[in-house]
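Exercise 7. Given the components listed, write out the predicted structure of the assembled complex. Treat all entries as one system.
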Amino acid sequence: MTAFLSVEGAAKRFAPVLTFGDKVATWLGAQKPPRTVHAVDGVDLFVERGAVLGLVGESGSGKSTLGRMVAGIHVPTEGSIRLEGMPVMSPGNRPRKITTRVQMVFQDPFASLDPRMRIADTLAEGPIAHGLTTRREAMAYARKWLETVGLDPDYATRFPHQFSGGQRQRVAIARALAMQPDLLVCDEPVASLDVSIQAQIINLLMRLRRELNLTLLFISHDLSVVRHLCDRVAIMYLGRIVEEGPTPEVYETPRHPYTRALLESVPRLEIDDDVDVVFRPIEGELPSPQNPPAGCHFNARCPLVFDRCRIERPLLNEVGNGRLAACHLASPDQAGPNLAIKPISG
Amino acid sequence: MTAALLEVRGLKTHFPTSSGIARAVDGVSFTLERGEVLGLVGESGSGKSVTGFSLIGLVDEPGRIVDGEIRFEGRDLVGQPTKELRRIRGRDIAMVFQDPMMTLNPVLSIATQMHLALEAHEKIGKEEARQRSIEALARVGIPSPEGRIDSFPHQFSGGMRQRVAIAIALLHRPKLIIADEPTTALDVSIQAQILAEMKALVKEFGMAMIWISHDLATVSSIADRIAVMYAGRIVEAGPVGQVLRSPRHPYTQGLLDSLPTRTSPGEELAQIPGTTPSLINLPSGCAFAPRCARANAECAVIPEEVYEDARRFRCHHPLPERSTP
Ligand SMILES: Nc1ncnc2c1ncn2[C@@H]1O[C@H](COP(=O)(O)OP(=O)(O)O)[C@@H](O)[C@H]1O
Ligand SMILES: Nc1ncnc2c1ncn2[C@@H]1O[C@H](COP(=O)(O)OP(=O)(O)O)[C@@H](O)[C@H]1O
Ligand code: SF4
Ligand SMILES: [Mg+2]
Ligand SMILES: [Mg+2]
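Answer.
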């Protein structure tokens, strides 16, 4: 069985961008020229049709880069991205995106809309180019998609600055949907919105998913939003997926020490005045993607680290019940529900 | 009885604009005791930052405080000369911003900036300043501060930069620290580190703190009391647990209900209909009325503040108090 979306061995490295200063420094014999950024470092990911997969991780972990590869915006340095077995990009040395079946929605709804274009033109431009509608029917087509995302169709003649942040994000979603995609990659679509507006957009995505049978790759650093919206969740750390599985199970019994630490560092709504909240931060800092550690990327911060972790990369292995984890302590041969991962005492 | 550390009464800070007067802060009152942490929450544009800026006398032109009192240790700061405010600022009251670069100067080393900050309020020699700075950096969790104090702001990560800004704010052990969304731009793991450090420092120094945030969870884990702002006014305030357990103002309830953590996964979230009003054309009565399910004709008049024990709210039709489970 081939998955609807399959990402295999995907890697993305960004060549160092040398500033003039760097060049002079290197030329003068500086010790450390800027290094390649390992933004995504060998990722396998499979998503079923109609599923919603959450991709979470801290900033710089490679979520956007992975999302952009899936959406055909970035060319993978290695590996393949396929939709029902068909590559998203053409082969050869000048790869191009060859499908309209994947579309993307970005975090900043203002930056992603052309301020000089009427909403109708913004919405119809792509669909006209790909023969999904005609110039004559463009207005009706745009109105239909505005209505789908819960906006007044009469807004079609307005410009982006006439909308609030939440409305702009609806327009951005409408523009992506107007291309009639099967897979929608949403990169932090609610991150810049107030909670009450965030709730409106989350509700909209849940409804669209049902009504249009969309498959969603939902990128977010907000663990509570992902828990609400996503069937499955993949946790990224420094370019790699460290854990993947059904959302409730991953949140309740994380199998990777990083997942556990990340979940524990989220402040909870504390409604008991007598409880003195104890924070459980992850120690240390995120290593640089220009110089990732050998072995497990989490080894310098992991409370359970042992020698093997500093040498050998843990693979993303089955750990039972459709769950995957990339930790030397979470292999399936160590049977038992919670493996050797002890709760972090506090 | 000694005066409260800070007593704000009827504070109004307005901004004249080409289309009218923006009433960013419009009658805000609250009291802060020594060592107490107040969480100021609300959605963007509700006037949280302008409240903070008003307290330290840093309101941007053409905005100005048009009414009210800000009593700090009994003395009204409103109308004090700039020189006097500058003396208080940094020494007795310090502020930390969402963007640490509001505090930091990109072209000066951390050592130089901290030396300048110390010198602004006391006579201090170079060596002593350096020692004090290193201690301050160590206290906010900067590893090997001796080795990093001569670095420049851009050589630090975002989280480390915010720590440096906090260290500078704490140099003079202020009595009050105003923290304006200091962790909003940071990742959760770094946010948790900074929350833990701030909480410990406030306790250690006996400082009072106003923690401004749009995030109820963060506020609930650090504050003793909470004040919820909407369109320039505090609509509800009280002990943080009481308010979040049993909100009396429909807006507080609406904010809580729209959190995904309060609804089962996959269920539709409660939405607050509409959007926040323009501060230039505020509804004449309760500013929340056009979005409120409980509103009726009475709400066309601004509700008076109702006081009940340690709590207060401004609503004609408050939600019933929920008995503790
Ligand atoms: N176009 C680019 N050129 C160079 N480096 C990049 C580029 N895009 C992203 N990166 C780097 O790749 C890493 C991963 O970035 P990103 O995918 O944006 O992470 P996330 O979305 O999880 O925050 C970061 O270190 C980032 O600086
Ligand atoms: N420099 C300014 N000029 C004009 N209006 C301002 C200025 N600063 C703030 N305001 C007004 O004050 C309102 C409240 O702003 P602010 O206190 O920053 O909100 P918050 O911090 O709650 O997001 C804004 O919506 C804006 O209308
Ligand atoms: S592989 Fe080792 S270092 Fe990595 S998470 Fe597992 S125990 Fe920790
Ligand atoms: Mg990103
Ligand atoms: Mg603000």
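Discussion: The interface with chain B takes residues 58-59, 164, 166, 194-200, 202-203, 206, 221, 223-225, 227-229, 247-248, 261-262, 265-274, 277, 279-282, 285-286 of chain A (CB under 8 Å). The pocket of magnesium ion (ligand 4) is lined by residues A 63-64 (CB under 6 Å).
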